């Protein structure tokens, strides 16, 4: 069986959408108690459990954590896809046996359960845990650092989501991005960074079969307050994963699949395990640009202006009654020549109305854009844009 077919038939279908909380995942965590070692090494600022899972018994110690930012849930879904894959007894048994014998994978599926509950980047105290690596002011940060010091990993996987704004000069979106964080302000290519870069090169080779030219690389400016930079500085190879956006997949169900393949590649389950790669190929991966918009309406005529402009719309993610709603707002007005929309439409020089208002104001929430002179023509409608 090909891995793509296994995934299609067996991914963890009980986890869907963007809102993934501790209440959602705990029943799945508990279902693995007989198969994996489950512990709770600490509590969140609001007293919620921070579950911790140990898989395998090999000498290669890998530490991973997801939902350090509570509203970044795609990699959490991918972790549970990975757990389901490792736990099944029908397919890829040779590869799984090798993984269990050679690796011990420790993972926090949800490091920030308070932020996850509230669907916020920060924890309950409004602190970005990925800027707390030195201060260690929050319980969640202390739990992660305590485990790092205790298990002494050989490799760390820092699992995140990125916004839909990233892409490349050729118009491709950055569906998944990676970073081998800097270990100092000079961005020295340390041995730890090289190891992380080699892993990313292998992952990129795997993903080329799925999303060619749509894997990105983050800027590696050093920030010691960030966890990845701190761990890299301590000599432990650390990979930053960033699950991004593709087409109209706002639930990130396709992107989770690519993160799943990336995890399998790290552990040598797919790809050419042990293949020699040149770390310098890491720098061939294009660096992310902030050049994508959720929607762009081109060639809009503004009243009293002979030139046409483009109007960009982005979505704010708003949690309401346990569902993440996507609220459109006007993000930018201008030529937008270097920007690309996941959806683009052409107004062909028409003047427009937004929610029956003539004035276009950046930052304003909107639900509809219509042709001012022909109100039967709708260029954008919130209810027909995306659905969670």
Automatic annotation (TrEMBL):
It comes from the Bacteria. One of its GO terms (molecular function) is carboxypeptidase activity. PROSITE patterns: PEPTIDASE_M14. Transmembrane segments: none annotated. Keywords: Carboxypeptidase, Hydrolase, Metalloprotease, Protease, Zinc. InterPro entries: Peptidase_M14. Pfam families: Peptidase_M14 (PF00246). Its cofactor is Zn(2+). The active site is at residue 242. PANTHER family: PROTEASE FAMILY M14 CARBOXYPEPTIDASE A,B, SLL0236 PROTEIN. This is M14 family zinc carboxypeptidase.
């Amino acid at each position: 069986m090909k891995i793509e077919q296994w995934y299609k038939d067996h991914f963890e279908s009980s986890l869907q959408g963007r809102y993934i909380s501790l209440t959602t995942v705990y029943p799945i965590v508990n279902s693995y108690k007989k198969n994996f070692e489950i512990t709770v090494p600490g509590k969140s600022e609001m007293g919620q459990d921070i579950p911790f899972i140990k898989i395998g018994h090999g000498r290669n110690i890998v530490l991973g954590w997801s939902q350090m930012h509570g509203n970044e849930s795609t990699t959490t879904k991918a972790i549970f896809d990975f757990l389901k894959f490792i736990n099944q007894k029908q397919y890829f048994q040779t590869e799984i046996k090798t993984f269990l014998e050679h690796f011990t994978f420790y993972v926090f599926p949800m490091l920030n359960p308070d932020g996850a509950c509230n669907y916020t980047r920060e924890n309950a105290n409004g602190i970005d845990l990925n800027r707390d690596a030195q201060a260690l002011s929050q319980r969640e940060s202390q739990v992660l650092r305590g485990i790092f010091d205790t298990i002494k990993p050989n490799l760390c996987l820092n699992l995140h989501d990125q916004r839909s704004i990233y892409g490349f000069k050729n118009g491709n979106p950055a569906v998944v991005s990676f970073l081998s964080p800097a270990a100092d302000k000079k961005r020295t290519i340390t041995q730890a960074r090289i190891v992380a870069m080699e892993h990313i090169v292998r992952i990129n080779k795997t993903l080329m079969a799925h999303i060619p030219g749509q894997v990105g690389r983050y800027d590696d400016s050093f920030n010691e307050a960030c966890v990845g930079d701190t761990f890299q500085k301590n000599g432990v190879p650390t990979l930053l994963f960033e699950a991004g956006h593709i087409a109209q997949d706002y639930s990130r169900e396709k992107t989770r699949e690519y993160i799943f393949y990336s995890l399998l590649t790290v552990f040598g389950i797919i790809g050419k395990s042990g293949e020699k790669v040149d770390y310098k190929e890491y720098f061939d991966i294009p660096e992310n640009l902030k050049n994508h918009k959720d929607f762009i309406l081109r060639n809009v005529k503004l009243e009293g202006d002979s030139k046409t402009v483009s109007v960009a719309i982005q979505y704010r993610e708003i949690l309401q009654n346990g569902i993440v709603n996507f609220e459109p707002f006007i993000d930018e007005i201008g030529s937008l020549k270097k920007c690309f929309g996941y959806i683009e439409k052409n107004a062909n020089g028409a003047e427009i109305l937004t929610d029956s208002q003539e004035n276009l104001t950046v930052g304003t929430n909107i639900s509809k854009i219509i042709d001012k002179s022909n109100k039967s023509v709708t260029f954008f409608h919130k209810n027909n844009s995306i659905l969670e």
